[in-house]
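Postdoc handover notes: sequence design on the structure in folder B. Input tokens:
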């Protein structure tokens, strides 16, 4: 994957939009007391809002640790 250090790059903007969308879905699931349904490894998986938050944070930390300074 191509990465750019510039916060104004299209990739950085797409990453920010995707993160915001994920957080919005998690907030909506939390407010409506519903699960978040995803497709993972060929199967349907239901995550609680807390599980989805933990997974999002772990994936963001992993992504950020792989970005060169």
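Designed sequence:
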């Amino acid at each position: 994957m191509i990465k750019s250090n510039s916060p104004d790059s299209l990739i950085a903007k797409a990453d920010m939009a995707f993160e915001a969308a994920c957080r919005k879905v998690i907030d909506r699931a939390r407010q409506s007391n519903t699960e978040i349904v995803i497709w993972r490894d060929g199967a349907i998986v239901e995550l609680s809002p807390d599980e989805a938050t933990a997974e999002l944070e772990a994936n963001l930390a992993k992504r950020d640790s792989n970005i060169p300074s």
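Context for whoever picks this up: The mean pLDDT is 90. Don't rerun without checking with the PI first.
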